[in-house]
TrEMBL record:
Keyword Nucleotidyltransferase recorded: no
Location in the cell: Cytoplasm, Cytoskeleton, Microtubule organizing center, Spindle pole body
Keywords recorded for this protein, A-Z: Cytoplasm, Cytoskeleton
Protein name stated in the entry: Mitotic-spindle organizing protein 1
Pfam families tied to this protein: MOZART1
GO terms under cellular component: gamma-tubulin ring complex; interphase microtubule organizing center; mitotic spindle pole body; spindle
């Protein structure tokens, strides 16, 4: 592999590492893979606010499924 490609990959890893640290501080519960996907979507023109809204909505829906409800400590079994 060309040295430039290695440098770009290393730089991308460093960016994701930094974003993951910020994400952890903000309690977003996004892992490195999810952050990478979000960055790729934003780089390809997805509106960041719309992406955040979709993620929130999907999490809300997932918490309302029977599986999500079973994992909710506030709901008695």
């Amino acid at each position: 592999m060309a040295p430039q490609a290695d440098d770009k990959r290393q730089a991308a890893r460093e960016v994701i590492d930094i974003l993951h640290e910020i994400s952890t501080l903000l309690n977003t519960d996004l892992d490195r893979t999810e952050l990478s996907l979000c960055v790729s979507l934003i780089e390809n023109g997805v509106n960041p606010d719309a992406l955040a809204t979709v993620i929130k909505d999907l999490r809300k829906e997932a918490s309302l499924t029977p599986r999500g409800l079973a994992n909710d400590p506030e709901i008695p079994e």
